[in-house]
Amino acid sequence: MLDLHVATSPEVKEAIEKGAVAVLAVGALEQHGAHLPLSTDSVMSHGVARRVCEAIDGLLLPPIVYGDAWNNEGFAGTLSLSPDTLRAILLDLGHGLKRTGVRALVIVNGHFGNREPIALAARMLKQEVGFPVMHLDYPGMERIAEKICDSKPAAPTFYHADEVETSMMLALAPELVRMDKAAPEYPVFPEIFGMAPIGLDSFNKSGVFGDPTSATAKKGETLIAGIVEESVRLIGIFLA
Predict the structure, then answer these.
(1) How far, in Å, CA of 26 to CA of 24, rounded?
(2) How far apart are CA 84 and CA 228, in angstroms?
(3) Mean pLDDT for each consecutive 10-residue tract of the chain (240 residues)?
(4) What CATH class has 2-239?
(5) H-run or E-run covering 22
(6) What are the E-state strand segments in 110-176?
(7) Which residue, among 166, 171, 181, has the nearest Cα to 215 in the 3D structure?
């Protein structure tokens, strides 16, 4: 693996000539309750991306630490990019990677709101310049969480500042987790949630969705290992 944050230009050139694939984490700067930092999605996605990159001997790009987090803007500290801005950033990076001869790009997405801009950028890069882009959203997470977690998610496939994310943060950056402030909240989702734009602060007080109190670093390592394993398997299919 070559980390572009510390790599030199000749090192990158050599890796590209060997057919290296770029790996990019896309996170967000948004609230995660009183016990997790605003950087949670970025820390998690970059942590997973690094392990994926190590497994495929790829080029690890510096992460994008802002995302489309508009529905959390009612909570202090959240800063959001528009979908068009995020898409434009990914298009620029994709075009640059294509020009330098990188074989393909794998995006590890750590925030639900980024999915549509990422998917559209990937499609445009494929259609416009024939550059292959794969985007991963923690494949296997739901299956693993169902097996190892003691708590239930606030809603199906909805993981935010809960046992899952807190466990992954305890595995990746325990110094950033304030477990003494962890507390559960199971808000009642509006019936039309997902059908119309709704700010999360309109029906949630703490910013927590679920119960983070039973989170452990061991659970986090299990989640990360399973996500990385499934990601590598899917990347193999993508590159073939």
Answers:
(1) 7
(2) 29
(3) 98 97 98 98 98 98 98 98 98 98 98 97 97 98 98 96 98 98 97 95 97 98 98 98
(4) alpha beta
(5) strand 22-26
(6) 133-136
(7) 166
